[in-house]
């Protein structure tokens, strides 16, 4: 029991910091520089994780890491930056919490993974909650922020689909989760540098609050959060994982109301509850699927010893997009566990606890 509490506390670092990312981005980071903001978040975090796992991608995973990094860190982080500065913290965090629900729906037509009844009902609840949240307030949320959030979720979902397809190829030896995440962070961040220089000019001047803010979103809410999430995920049961994912939107709502003076109307409060109920209905099934023991052939393809559980990641729904990163969406059925993608997609993990996409 003591071990469970300890690892729950370790894993909880991820959804809490992802939920706080929206508040920090909106309050401390410079406006008008989402591309440079994404670079300054992704590259330092990638370097830290790479220092922990000094492994090079093998073969075609060089360009695959670049593609996944561009979608799941470069574009995703930039869009999250925009959403966090245009939307109230509580709204941004709750909208992004629907990441695994969107993955659930997209995996049906794109990957042929039909969801079970309970997760499908959860997806309906979550989408209804978002509709109430963005449409029932006295002041409608900025449509540009809503568009940025939805686009970020779609980017994360596309990255998941690609990872799922590539993960089915037994000839590909995918990198371990931390080193794969490190290379995707570096690839996504560096890919944005030319675009940032052309579109936004020189990097923004940073005052002390901005330096502290970038240190938080990069080193704490990305490098430390991913490390804690993956460590806890390997040691906790699926039900605990699903509950921890709810800390992401709850943190965003708490910070928005307590520190930013945001107020939700009654209908918006109902919307938040519907999103939480929907995520809770879907996440345990996703986590349970992700933690199933793969076939012997799958473990051999990934280089994992036959008697040891391979590394997998289930992204939180939040800052990022979460969904699940190398796992399947909540409630997916009818597939062998060996077909799950075997590489990390940070977006689905950033904004995946429920990825949640990292915030």
TrEMBL record:
- The organism is Vallicoccus soli
Q: Which UniProt keywords apply?
A: Membrane, Transmembrane, Transmembrane helix
Record-given protein name:
EamA family transporter
UniProt record similarity statement = Belongs to the EamA transporter family.
Write out the biased-composition intervals (Low complexity). 297-306, 335-349
Q: Name one GO cellular component term.
A: membrane
Domain EamA span(s) in chain numbering: 7-134, 145-280
Where does it live in the cell? Membrane
Q: What is the predominant subcellular site recorded for this chain?
A: membrane
